[in-house]
Specification:
The protein is built from eleven helices and eight strands. By secondary structure, it is an alpha/beta fold. Bound molecules: phosphoenolpyruvate. InterPro entries: Aldolase_TIM, TIM_sf, TrioseP_Isoase_bac/euk, Triosephosphate_isomerase, Triosephosphate_isomerase_AS.
Amino acid sequence: MRAQIVAGNWKMNNDLSETESLITSLKGQTKTSNAEVMVAPTAINLFSAYNSLKGSGIEVIAQNMHFAANGAYTGEVSAAMLKSVGVQTVILGHSERREYFNETDEMLAKKVDAALANDMRVIFCFGEELADRKSDNHEHVVESQIKNALFHLEAGAFKNIVLAYEPVWAIGTGETASPEQAQDMHAFIRKTLANQYGEDVANSVSILYGGSVKPNNAVEIFSKPDVDGGLIGGASLNAEDFFAIVNAF
Ligand code: PEP
């Protein structure tokens, strides 16, 4: 009943011709699962990627956006601009945005509002750092990230929210959370949602896991009951590996 989703975050990789050749390889893959498939090229390649993937069943999504509608924000892109090139979904709150671009929960709450006001879907990322896990503070950190950025929303807004739990210590490190660690946290996230919005909302929201998901560990991670898919970094840059993950359901 919950959507299964596998989204590839290409980060700041691939120029225009590299983007087009990865797309050509993606179009040559066969999907055997029911997962929704998304890829997030860098902003400058969104328009061409959207046109190249139109009708393929692979959705082109954005890695980030600004909360303002327009104005003096040099270098930024708004929700309406993303929509004008065909993008309906945006990743917000990725740990790299939080770490290198100082994105705070408060800023992210504004970005979430702007995306939803433009009828976009949000993949909202959050996750603890290694020190939080070592000090057994990981649930508290995750709970406050979710509450601060999302709990001002009305229950109905969650039909356009996908959550992505990404422990920072597992992103791009080759270190993945064990399937049990992922399941425990996803169950905790669902309980946090249920406490605020009730079981129906909690059970309807897809929660993705991200952090060194690869073809050789995806089946086990995706087999967990509260894991509804993955946000994939490194492995999404190779079409065969990415589709091995898409097909891991
Ligand atoms: C990510 O950047 O969201 C991510 C999960 O990266 P990787 O798969 O490379 O760990």
